[in-house]
Amino acid sequence: RADWDSALDLVARRFGDAVRDHGSDSVVFYVSGQLLTEDYYVANKLMKGFIGSANIDTNSRLCMASSVAGHKRAFGTDTVPGTYADLEQADLIVLVGSNLAWCHPVLYQRIAAAKNVRPHMRVVNIDPRRTATCDLADMHLRIAPDGDVALFNGLLAYLADHDKLDLEYVAAHVGGCRAALAAARSSDALDCGAAPEDIARFFQLWAGTPKVVTVYSQGVNQSESGTDKVGAILNCHLATGRIGKAGCGPFSVTGQPNAMGGREVGGLANMLANHLDIENEAHRDTVQTFWNSPTICSVAGLKAVDLFDACAAGKIKALWIMSTNPAVSMPDAEAVAKAIRNVPFVAVSDIMARTDTGDLADVLLPATGWGEKDGTVTNSERRISRQRAFMSAPGEARPDWRIISDVAARMGFGAAFAYDT
């Protein structure tokens, strides 16, 4: 049991000592899509602009990194070219790797309501398993696990062979179409594992429906071929011009409540705020100038899995985990718990008095929860939602942005973190 001043002094001292004795890359923050955008922002500002390392990653890495990489490959930026309203205007909704009924129940109900109003709307659910989402689907395309790339490569080849490409759109807006087609033809759609007659029916339905929205989620992203899955889906929409207009487009639905807000403020170890690139000197200068910071990270930091591998290897001397429970939620959780135990100093900010990760902490900081917070989150369609606390903070709990700012001030950066709200 301690007071706030003692706890914050200790966190600041141990992080400062680690940076002084072992360098800025000896410390890491592991944060969370459960944070508000403002919390995410000050954590990234402290680590990337004042400590000078990019060693801050998030549990959103586990659900969204493949989409970020796929979007950047296709569009040059991490852009989601869809809105929720498209779901009500589409004539075909294709769900890929998404048990929407359980994981995004409000969207599921929205599609069900739209289908009730527009009975001609068709829903295809692509999933190796039968799930509750199949109850809404007109067709369940049962592919093999990781069969998505072969399926959508096959679809792209089918669209080309049946003159369904929008050549005018491609000529005006798309590069690399020939190479994408050549790559698509190098795989066999039958390798996706679905029945040939079902594949043929799906291809005909997609090709014959001008307004298509492809909704994909963790069954696409959480795979060692996740980025290629995203690319294969995006290519079909780009090649047919079914993107950027009502009722059309590929639509990534996120796995964390504020995964998108985190990405907007540089929440991942390989990006800067405002979707700027760490590797780009001009981008680094822009961010450093805006922050008026003494330094700026110049290379990507440790990503979630690598971060805990570095903890296990003894490379990390101070670790701060915020609003997540990696000793339970990370892959190979037992090894992650052992890795955390190996770090000389661990701080954990949480709303829970006891978690498996909290049990490993040297300092446990009581943070406010969702209904006690004031700030913003960004949803899957990039709509920013303003939220205001409807409950007062219990006990001595404080918002994450304030805890981070107080530590920053104790590390000598008070002027840059003098936020009142």
Q: How would a textbook summarize the main sheet?
A: 5 strands, parallel
Q: Give me the Rg, rounded.
A: 23 Å
Envelope shape: elongated
Structural class: alpha/beta
Q: Helix and strand string, N-terminal first?
A: HEHEHHEHHEEHHHHEHHEHHHEHHEEEEH
Give the N-terminus to C-terminus distance in angstroms: 27 Å
Low-confidence stretches: none
**How many DSSP E strands?**
12
- The helix content is 40-55%
* pLDDT averaged residue by residue: 96
Count of individual helical segments: 18
Name the assembly state: single chain
Sheet with the most strands: spatial strand order: 2-1-8-9-10
The percentage of residues in β strands lies in: 5-15%
What does this structure look like?
The strands form 3 sheets. A 5-stranded parallel beta sheet has the order 2-1-8-9-10, with helices on both faces. It is built from 18 helices and 12 strands. It has helices spanning 4-22, 37-51, 60-75, 84-89, 100-103, 105-117, 148-161, 167-173, 177-185, 196-207, 218-221, 226-240, 259-264, 281-291, 304-312, 326-329, 333-341, 400-413; strands at residues 27-31, 56-58, 92-96, 122-126, 139-141, 212-216, 249-252, 318-322, 345-350, 363-366, 375-378, 384-387. Helix content is 44%, strand content 13%. β1, α2 (37-51) and β2 form a beta-alpha-beta unit. With 421 residues, it is an alpha/beta fold. α2 runs parallel beside α18, α7 packs across α9 (177-185) and α7 crosses α10 (196-207).
